[in-house]
Amino acid sequence: MSKQELEVIGQDAACCPGLSAAPLDEDRAADLAKVFKALGDPVRLRLMSMIASREEGGEVCVCELTPAFDLSQPTISHHLKQLRQAGLIDCERRGTWVYYWVLPGVLDRLAAFLTTPRSAGADA
């Protein structure tokens, strides 16, 4: 199991400015690219959505994820592994089944990174 945290994005503007605040350095760009690559696949994006749509801190069993796709269980496991390696989700095996959850704050940090500051006169 991966316990990797998504360190590259943060809500603290002084620590980790958003995309429009300053150019990315090479290392940060490479780290963020892994996250976006993981989310760039339609199956992984749907899996992430299914896991993230659980109540705060909620978990989802792989047995609930697999039937939603016309893919084999090993293929679903591969996609879930990619999401784990990108630092978006984590999991725990309980008996026969594996349960997945979104790592705390990951989506908020990603959203904060993508959010551009609005000027005082900007329209919505």
How would you describe this structure in keywords?
disordered N terminus; elongated; single chain
Summarize the helices and strands and which ones pair or pack.
Blueprint lengths: L25 H14 L2 H11 L7 E2 H4 L7 H13 L3 E6 L2 E6 L3 H9 L10
Antiparallel strand pairs: 1-3, 2-3
Helix pairs in contact: 1-4, 2-4
How is this structure best summarized?
The protein has 124 residues and is α+β, with helices and mostly antiparallel strands. It contains five helices and three strands.
Describe this structure in words.
By secondary structure, the chain is of the alpha+beta class. It contains five helices and three strands; from the N terminus they run ααβααββα. It has helices spanning 26-39, 42-52, 62-65, 73-85, 106-114; strands at 60-61, 89-94, 97-102. The protein has a three-stranded antiparallel β-sheet with strand order 1-3-2. Strand 2 and strand 3 form a beta hairpin. Helix 1 (26-39) packs antiparallel against helix 4 (73-85). The termini are far apart. Residues 1-15 have low confidence and may be disordered.
Instruction: Work out the number of β strands.
Output: 3
User: What is the average of the pLDDT values?
Assistant: 82
Give the C-alpha Rg: 16 Å
How can the largest sheet be summarized? 3 strands, antiparallel
- Show unreliable segments: 1-15
Global outline? elongated
Distance from N terminus to C terminus (CA atoms, Å) equals 42 Å
Task: Give the helix tally.
Answer: 5
Strand content: 5-15%
Helix content: 40-55%
- The largest sheet has its strands arranged as 1-3-2
Helix/strand/pairing category:
alpha+beta
Order of helices and strands: HHEHHEEH
